[in-house]
Amino acid sequence: MRLPRGAGTRPFSEPPPAGLIGRMSTPHHASVPTVPVSDPIPLRRVLVSVYDKAGLDQLATALKTAGIEVVSTGGTARALEAHGVKVTDVAAVTGFPEILDGRVKTLHPNVFAGLLYRRDRPDDIDIVARHGIGPIDAVIVNLYPFEAIVAQPDCRPADAIELIDIGGPSLVRAAAKNHAFTAVVTGPDQYPELIATIARGGTTLAERRLLAARAFERTATYDTAIAAWMARHAGLVAEPPTLAPATNTLDAAPLPARFSLELQERLPLRYGENPHQSAALYAPAGSRVGLAGLKQLCGKELSYNNLLDLDGATRLAGLIESPTAIVVKHTNPCGAATATTIDAALATAMAADPTSAFGSIVAVNRRFDRACAELLLQPGLFVEVIAAPAFDPAAVELLTTKPTWKASVRLVEVPAGDPWEPTHGLELRSVAGAILAQRPDDCCDDPANWKVVTKQAPSAELTPVLDFAFTVVRRLTSNAIAVCQGPSLVGAGIGQTSRVDATRIALEKAGSRARGGVLASDAFFPFADSIPLIARAGIAAIVQPGGSKRDAEVIAAADEAGIPMVFTSRRHFRH
To answer: Most buried one in 387, 463, 516, 523, CB count within 10 A?
Structure first.
């Protein structure tokens, strides 16, 4: 993965680091006599070939006013001429017409030698003079919109292939390589600064170097997008595997042996998990779903920890179809509930663990309305972030004017969509010096495939509660236990090194609310030692993956306690 930094985020008028200008202006072959070259280098002849015509009118005015000779192609030439610029067709430079439906037009020595010759080298100067090749002082090129086209659902392979630009990247790379003498502009956003350099007499080496860095970033991004699409087109990137519910085994689809990912900085953060750590949010280029597409409506800037908590809250809310509210603290749900209305779900979720809910992250899977806002205005409540697919204006008005914490709360809209598509269907996580990749654990479990392993089966009304509990426990940090009373989390044992400790903590959190409720475990019980605790708390049913070599002992203990137990055959560790 490549994180774009440095020159790509700075205006190209910023000076380079001290000491670099002198080194880069030194001829590569010291034994060849040199010719003095001025700096700045004036723009007398430029090549313009752009797909995106935005800003071309202002650029045309600057080129015409300065009397700069313009070489151009096809539609760009016609657009420049419409703005009053006299254009030399590239065919007049190459002595060869465009052919193959425009696939070949600029790929010619008369163009590339004009871009690449070194103007402080007498031998280079002699060669271009001998062949009558004129210098090109700047290339102004933007590329075919490959990324945008292939993102369209109706894009055909033939369309994508025709949008693989050949001449454009070649021109950009040539000019960027020879940035000691040639400027390169790769987007309309760079026109204002280019126009300013024209007005003051030319580009400096520092400016050309930064332009070149941005140009190579652009071609790298472009090539990455093409490589990713071509890998899918050729079948080199595996599709997400399917899971056979009865056997819990994966099919033979492998993970990709290699993939590239272009990341862009989307959100600078004040600091990371702690104030001494710098941090930012990066997202795949072009991605606008999940947290990559969040829209903050108000409040303080989001923090690193806020975003981690938002991820946990929104992913769990997205697993449940009914109106659902999730309350998260330190990446773990401390409240979760479904109800017939979103405000009822929110009320129940906030009441599950009021102490932990103070300063929490809240996510709902429905529009956040006025009733939800009024609920959070009750005394003693405070939340850091509220996430929803959308907010009613009345809710925004209340939350940003009424509570004492109105200036602090962040309201965040998170768009729907598959957040894993830009990462080739993979969930990524960093470790020291490497990246771990796995298929996301976002497929819902089907209770129809579960197996009752005790003599007594859970009552029919407990089946949806068991389903809810087993959905919630998968988003708790392992070892994890969730206790639910109806479709509401009432106790959680999180991140324990033994399952019996996780069970004890979850039951203590639930207190009297555990009686008649259900208990879910994210992995099997390795011993039967948790069953007596569960029985004393009055739990009505247990759901767990099973798979321990002591399953028979655990089942026997549950039978002796009269507690129905269901095996799901699917583990949900979360580390």
So the answer is: 387
Residue in this structure with the two tokens 């992995």, named with its chain if needed = 523
Q: Per-residue pLDDT tens for 67-97? A: 888 888 878 888 888 888 888 877 777 666 6
Q: Which fold has domain 263-413?
A: Cytidine Deaminase; domain 2 (3.40.140)
Q: How far apart are CA 568 and CA 46, in angstroms?
A: 68
Q: What is the CA radius of gyration of the chain?
A: 31
> What residue ranges in 144-269 does DSSP mark as E strands?
183-185, 243-244, 249-250, 263-269
pTM: 0.70
The residues that are catalytic are 177, 330
Rounded to whole angstroms, how far apart are CA atoms 335 and 313? 10
Give the CA count within 13 Å in the CB-facing half-sphere of 174: 26
**CATH number given to 447-567:** 3.40.140.20
Superfamily of domain 6-231: Methylglyoxal synthase-like domain (3.40.50.1380)
12: tokens are 């190209």
| Tens digit of each residue's pLDDT (9 = 90 or more) over 102-116 | 666 666 677 777 777
Domain with CATH 3.40.140.20 in the chain: 263-413, 447-567
Going through 190-252 in order, the beta strands assigned E by DSSP cover 243-244, 249-250
